[in-house]
Amino acid sequence: MSRTIDNAPYTAFHRRLALACSGGPLLDGYILSIVGVALIGMRPELGLSTADVSLIGAAALVGMFVGGALFGVLTDKIGREVMYTADLIVMIVCSVLSFWVDAVWALTLLRFVLGMAVAADYPIATSLLAEWLPAKHRGRLLGQQIIAWYAGAVLAYLTGYLFLTFGGPGSWRWMLGSSTVLCVVFLVIRRGSPESPRWLAANGRVGDAVRLVEKHLGVKVDGRELMPEPTAPGAPTGLRLLMTPPYRRRTLFCGLFFLCQVGPLFAMLTFGPQLLEAFGMPGGTVLETLGTGLISLVFLLGCYPALRLIDTWGRRPVIIRSFALMIVPLAVLGLFPDAPAAVVVVALCAYAFLCGGPNVLDWTYPNELFPTEIRATAVGVATSVSRIGAAVGTYLLPLSLSGIGTGPTMLIAAGVTACGLLVSVLWAEETRGTALGAAATTPGTAPRKARAARPAPQPVR
């Protein structure tokens, strides 16, 4: 376990790395949200049916299910740095090709591949970031990655609004292709980002790990402390290790709470304009798009108090109280679907704000609860499981709105959220202030208080 990294001073290097790692979440928020706006113009131009719309909306999420599990395992095997930019190149190619699509199958395929690339970035970037961060700042900076997701969603709706207002017919093509610009920007930002010293040490490259720590953190480190705990010959690894008794409950917890959170959330964001219209908002384009953009902004704002609370209250109380409160506005919308527009907007915004707690823990928990050798695998599996709910919710939302109505649809969302509450009450652990190695290798409930910090390492002279 690395005391040096856990107790290292927080520097500009950490800030730069956090910015570089935020590219995946930001692009995810942008790519998943922009299609909801693009569908406004795409639907009449391509003659899309309700089933086509659902398929296009869910394709990226299905891709994320496949990509999360596949590339999480691969990232633990070949390293974080190797794949750190490759996934962005795939996103660029798919974004450019999306501009030219004319068939549902082609767009569905491109969205599927985009989803795989986005999901690949989560285990790559968040595990890399977690393995470089000091313990004191780990929760906040991992939690801030979700802020990038909502920033991407808000940017998508703003971009979509501008294209709808000034772009005219066919502007949906420019919307789908616009993610190319963001991909290129983060491709440049990520140049020079280092490999994880913990991963290097775990794979026998202790000397390289020591040199990276001394170069980027400015502190001396004993290579032996970077080494993970030895494992017995023939012990399970990878996905098999996730399903062993010490980690099985954690794997289920991370996947299920993530699933229960993002299932309703992604459906609302992807089809926000259609959802607001179902509640009786004025139809058309601009008002629906701006309304969904406002709700996305509230999702983002709700993350800021949650970032502070996970380091003051702790991870466990934040996730439990947040899920409990999130049920209330969804129940209101379900029981009173004909409520005035102001009530609908307030309820949706309240739900969005209260989502902040689970949001900032989406990547914090799986990165803290698993050791280096399976950390990216755990993040990938949690992402994959969550996207089952997101894909199902996104596919079913337009069908549910037209089939059983807005009230029952919102009550189903409240029920899914209640399942997230139950999972959190039963299995959420406390990792606040705990060294990364200690939190990851101690099954059961981790200590609520931080371990006594050792003196900060001295800078290299």
Automatic annotation (TrEMBL):
Keywords: Membrane, Transmembrane, Transmembrane helix, Transport. Residues 17-432 form the Major facilitator superfamily (MFS) profile domain. It is found in: Cell membrane. Residues 437-455 have a biased composition (Low complexity). Residues 437-461 are annotated as: Disordered. Pfam families: Sugar_tr (PF00083). It is a multi-pass membrane protein. The chain crosses the membrane at residues 17-41, 53-74, 86-106, 112-134, 146-166, 172-189, 250-269, 289-307, 319-336, 342-365, 377-397, 409-428. This is MFS transporter. The lineage of its organism: Bacteria, Bacillati, Actinomycetota, Actinomycetes, Kitasatosporales.
